[in-house]
Design a protein that fits this description.
The protein has 437 residues and is mainly beta. It has 4 helices and 28 strands. The strands form 7 sheets. It has a 4-stranded antiparallel β-sheet with strand order 1-28-27-26, with no helix packed on it. The longest helix has 14 residues.
Length: 437
């Protein structure tokens, strides 16, 4: 905290790669924001009043999931699984699975490996386009950094190659494509997560492969965008989750000609570890509601936190949001709200990258909506990996929604016996096949 407020610390500075130093230094105040006495008072306040511990709130899922048939899948012999992406292409009916080791695997509807492609860096997102090549976001460096080594690339599946058309991005983790100014050309909205620096960017299409870059939010931690006409004025707006420090969900209302009005819908404490969101209509009133997860636990305090979990915020009709449901889940990192059991209400499938490692099966929880609340369920097979990504899709084409989990088996903070178990299992995907009849 002192370092970010402008107090020099050579030990922290020496921990950064030389390639990051310039960006980090420029992100810091040129001089301390407060006096030494004021900083000492702040520090002493926390040391005096902070609790010695926080309660561990169990989610207590039942090991009795019945909605899905579950099995494990290996897809690579490259050591422990390091999956960064799962996405289905509904046109080709292929499942695309990306790896931290800069590989892209193509699986068929039977989840059999059909092909693999070597990439220039780990992949974070893919956008399929009708009659055009898919677009991928290459992170450059996946670990926290401020280097401009990420890019957007066109993927040639048949040619096993990529072509960069937007470069010099700081760790892009998500992007969307939409015509923001009504000129008939589709523009790109890109979340460059970065570390100390980062941005929410737009790249206006000028035609013939030319783009004009604009910064919408000059903050690190842009995680995900949903792009749609939220106010029904004919222009596409942007809803974004920012997750690094100044954690917020903000709606950028399009005023035309790339002028956006920023309205912060929800702001969260910087310790929350915001990780994901999606837009759904939970109460069927025609207004968009928000399902949100927080549980990033990789920074300065890795203890279990009782405020980690899944939250549902209902829209009052005027884009005012109030928390209506909190589902505790240690380390929650991604949630999908769908009617998995076809009973007319929305259930929630969720994963955690930082679960209770003494209960690793809680890395996946299915919250069944029974009309009066949510019943948490899991499976013992969920202990076979550390789940980073999740996709809900009808991969077997039987008319219902299935779930695929991808494992990135990092061992930071994980008990050695569990790491050894993951190494032995090498489970890359956990397959949850919906058994709706």
């Amino acid at each position: 905290m002192a370092f970010r407020m402008g107090f020099p610390d050579s030990k922290i500075l020496s921990s950064f790669p030389e390639e990051d130093l310039d960006a980090v230094i420029k992100s810091l105040p040129p001089r301390p924001m407060i006096t030494e006495a004021e900083w000492s008072a702040i520090k002493n306040y926390y040391l005096t009043h902070a609790p010695d511990s926080v309660p561990v709130i169990p989610s207590n899922p039942n090991d009795s999931i019945t909605q899905f048939n579950v099995h494990e899948l290996k897809i690579s012999t490259q050591g422990v699984p390091l999956i960064t992406l799962i996405k289905k292409d509904s046109v080709s009916n292929k499942i695309f699975v990306g790896s931290r080791l800069s590989k892209l695997y193509l699986l068929n509807s039977k989840l059999a490996l059909e092909d693999s492609i070597s990439l220039t860096s780990p992949i974070s997102h893919i956008l399929f386009q009708k009659d055009q090549m898919p677009v991928i976001s290459a992170m450059g460096i996946m670990d926290p950094n401020d280097q401009m080594k990420g890019s957007l690339q066109l993927l040639s599946i048949s040619g096993h190659s990529t072509e960069t058309f937007i470069d010099s991005l700081k760790r892009p983790v998500h992007f969307e494509k939409a015509d923001l100014n009504g000129d008939g050309l589709e523009d790109y909205i890109i979340c460059t997560f970065g570390n100390y620096t980062g941005e929410l960017l737009t790249y206006e299409s000028l035609g013939k492969g030319k783009f004009k870059k604009r910064t919408l939010l000059n903050l690190p931690g842009a995680r995900k965008v949903v792009v749609r006409d939220f106010n029904n004025d004919g222009l596409k707006d942007i809803l974004v989750l920012m997750t690094q420090g100044d954690e917020q969900l903000s709606l950028l209302t399009n005023g035309g000609n790339f002028n956006f009005k920023i309205n912060t819908l929800l702001r969260f404490p910087p310790v929350y570890g915001s990780s994901y969101f999606d837009v759904v209509d939970f109460n069927h009133d025609g207004k968009f509601d928000i399902v949100y997860t927080n549980g990033d636990n990789a920074d300065y305090s890795t203890i279990l936190k009782p405020y980690h979990g899944i939250r549902i915020y209902l829209n009052d009709g005027k884009n005012g949001f109030k928390e209506s449901v909190f589902l505790p889940m240690h380390g929650a990192s991604h949630a999908i709200a769908r009617d998995f059991d076809n009973d007319g209400d929305l259930d929630i499938a969720a994963i955690s990258f930082f679960p209770r490692f003494d209960h690793p099966e809680e890395g996946f929880i299915y919250f069944e909506n029974n009309g009066k609340g949510f019943t948490p369920q899991t499976t013992s097979l969920a202990s076979s990996g550390r789940w980073l990504v999740m996709e809900s899709t009808d991969f077997d084409n039987d008319g219902d929604l299935d779930i695929l989990l991808g494992a990135l088996d990092f061992n930071n903070g994980v008990p050695t016996p569990l790491v050894d178990y993951w190494k032995q299992k090498k489970t890359a995907l956990l397959v949850l096949s919906n058994n709706n009849k």
